[in-house]
Amino acid sequence: MNILVCITHVPDTTSRIAFTNNNTEFDKNGVQFIIGPYDDYALARAVELKEQSGGKITVLNVGEADSDPTIRKALAIGADEAIRVNAFPSDSFFVANQIAAIAKEENYDLILMGRESIDFNGGMVHGMVGELLGLPSFSPVMQLEVDGTNAKITREIEGGKEKLDVSLPFVAGCQEPIAEWKIPNMRGIMSARTKPLNVVEPSDTSTHSTISAYELPPAKGAVKMIDADNVSELVDLLRNEAKVI
Amino acid sequence: MSVLVFIETEDGKIKKSSREAITYGAALGEVTALALGTVSAEELATAGKNGATKVLHVADERLNDGLIQPYAEALSAAATEVGADIIVTAKSSLADAVVGRVSMKLGAALVSNVVALPDTSNGFQVKRSIYTGKAFANVNMTTDKKILAIKKNAVEVKEDGGTATVEAFSITLDDSLFGSKITSTEKAEGDVLLPEADIVVSGGRGLKGPENWGIIEDLAKTLGAATGCSKPVSDMDWRPHHEHVGQTGVKVSPTLYIAVGISGAIQHLAGVNSSKYIVVINKDEEAPFFKAADYGIVGDAFEVLPKLNEALKTALA
C-alpha cells in the first residue's frame, strides 16, 4: 500500500502564543515545534497499516526549512521518504494545491492527514484535496481498517459516531483513537538521517486570503473563590453577576 | 449581497448553531437557507425567525445522513442557483468536511472559526479564532465568492423575524456520489449536544470511576447542560470519545463551563478557553485550572456537587 501522510509543523500544545513585528508575525522565540498532534495520529496509523500489509509511506509537509527537524521525526517514526514543498503555508487553499500537485504525481492508495492543524484549526484541507483530486474525503476519522481495496472507517459525528464502508483511494482527516502516538526509537532516529527528504518548489503560488494582524484575547480576571460550605453563594454569583443561569 | 446559509438539522429540528449562522448571514444581506434530507416544511419555515427569507429544501432521502460529497454537490448547486456572494455555515464536524470541497468547486475563499461580522470598509476582513482559542487573526478574503464557517456560540441568535418561504429545490445527485455506505450510526439519544451547548458540566479523573458519573449527569440535567470529560477519562473509556473536551477533542465555547475533578492541563484548557464563564470544583487547591477560572470551590466533588445541585434546583424552580 502506498500512503501519503501530510503533516504540519506547529507549536507544541503547551506553547505560550505571542506575536511580533507589530502583531503581524507569530513569535517563534522559545517555542518548541512538533508534528501536529492529529497528523501524528494519521502517521501512527499509516505505520501500523504498513506493518500489516507492507508498502511505502511518504510524508509531505508544506513549509520552510525550519520544518526539517519535524519531518525527520516523522521519518524516525516510520515514514520511508519525505517531500517538503518549500514555501510558507499561507492559507488552506495554497496548502491544498501543493498537496494535490504532489499527490497527482503518484498513485497513492491513501492520503492521510490530521482532522485540522492546531495553529489555524481550519479543518478544511482534507476536503479541498479530495475535491482537487476527485476523490472521496472523510473527516474526522477515528478508526480505519483496510482490506485490499476496501476500507471500514468510523467517523465522529456530533454526539456519536458512524461507520462507513468505503473504497480506496480516498483522503482522510484523522483523530484519536485511530492509533496511539508512536515515539521514535534509536534505530528509527539513526535511519531517519539517511532517508530521502526531497525539497521541491511550490507549483502554484496563488492564495485566497492574507492575514493583516493577530490579536490576543483580553487577560482573564482573578478567580473568585467560594467556600465549599456555601454553594448558594456560587448560585447567586452565576445568577446575578455572571447572569448565565 | 446574496447570502446562502447551510442548515444542519438534528432530530428533525434546525440546530441552534445553524440559527446562529442564519442570524449572522442576515446581518450581511438577503438570506436563502439550504436544508438537505427529510425535515418538515413547518420547521424550515421557522428559519425566518432568525432572518432567512427563503429556504431551499432538497428532500432527497439519500441525504438524511450527512454524506460529504453529495452535501458538497448540493451546497455548490444551491450557491449557483441563488447567485450567492457569501456562503455561511456553522463550524461543525460535518460542515468542515463539506465546505472545503465547496470552496474548490466555486473558487471561493474559505475562513473557518469566524467570531465576528466582517469589516467591509476596506475589502472584506473577518476575525477568526486561531491557536485553539489562544489568539485571533484578522483575515482579508481576496476572492469574489466567500465561505464563512462561524464558531459555535459566537453569535447571539435573533428571533424577531417572520416566516420563511420553503421551496423544493430539485437537483440531480449522481449515484457515484453515494459510493460510501454508512453501515451503522451510534448516537446518544435526547442529550444536549456538547458542541452546541450553552452550559457544559465536565468531569475528570477526580470522579474516580464511570460509576460516579451520576452526580455530573444530575447537575447537567438541572442546568439543561451537556456533559463532557477530560482526555484521561475518555482514554480509559469511562466516557465516550465524543465527550472529550480539549486540544485533541471537542473545543467548546459555552456561556458556562463547570469543571469537576479536572486538574486543568494546558491541553484541556485549549478546549475550553472560549467559554464565557468557568467554574472549577477541585479538592486540590493547587490545581492549575483555578488560574483559568472565574469562580472556584476547593472541595470534594462528592460532597459539593449534590449540595450545588439542590441549591440550583431551588434557585431555578
Defining traits:
heterodimer, A: 245 residues, alpha/beta, Rossmann fold, nine-stranded mixed β-sheet, two-stranded antiparallel ribbon, 6 helices, B: 317 residues, seven-stranded parallel β-sheet, five-stranded parallel β-sheet, 8 helices
Explain the layout of strands and helices.
The complex is a heterodimer of chains A (245) and B (317).
Chain A: E1 2-6, E2 9-11, E3 19-20, E4 25-26, E5 33-35, H1 37-53, E6 56-63, H2 68-77, E7 81-86, H3 92-104, E8 110-114, H4 125-133, E9 137-147, E10 150-157, E11 160-167, E12 170-174, H5 186-192, E13 197-200, E14 209-215, E15 224-226, H6 231-241
Parallel strand pairs in A: 1-6, 1-8, 6-7, 7-13, 8-12, 9-12
Antiparallel strand pairs in A: 2-5, 3-4, 9-10, 10-11
Helix pairs in contact in A: 2-5, 3-4
Chain B: E1 2-6, E2 9-10, E3 13-14, H1 16-26, E4 30-36, H2 41-45, E5 52-58, H3 68-82, E6 86-90, H4 93-106, E7 109-114, E8 125-130, E9 135-141, E10 146-150, E11 165-168, E12 181-187, E13 199-203, H5 214-223, E14 226-229, H6 231-235, E15 256-260, H7 266-272, E16 277-282, E17 295-298, H8 301-316
Parallel strand pairs in B: 1-4, 1-6, 4-5, 5-11, 6-10, 7-10, 13-14, 13-15, 15-16, 16-17
Antiparallel strand pairs in B: 2-3, 8-9
Helix pairs in contact in B: 3-4, 5-8
Give the total of beta strands of chain B: 17
Architecture (CATH level 2) name of chain A: 3-Layer(aba) Sandwich
H/I helix tally of chain A: 6
The CATH superfamily of chain A is identified as HUPs
CATH topology descriptor of chain A: Rossmann fold
* Principal-axis shape of chain A: globular
The number of strands of chain A is 15
Helical fraction of chain A equals: 25-40%
Shape of chain B: globular
Annotated CATH topology of the largest domain in chain B: Rossmann fold
N-C termini distance of chain A: 54 Å
Largest sheet of chain B: 7 strands, parallel
What is the name of the CATH class of chain A?
A: Alpha Beta
Main beta sheet strand tally, sense and closure of chain A: 9 strands, mixed
The helix/strand class of chain A is: alpha/beta
- N to C succession of SSEs of chain B: EEEHEHEHEHEEEEEEEHEHEHEEH
Cross-sheet strand order for the largest sheet of chain A: 11-10-9-12-8-1-6-7-13
| Percentage of residues in helical conformation of chain B | 25-40%
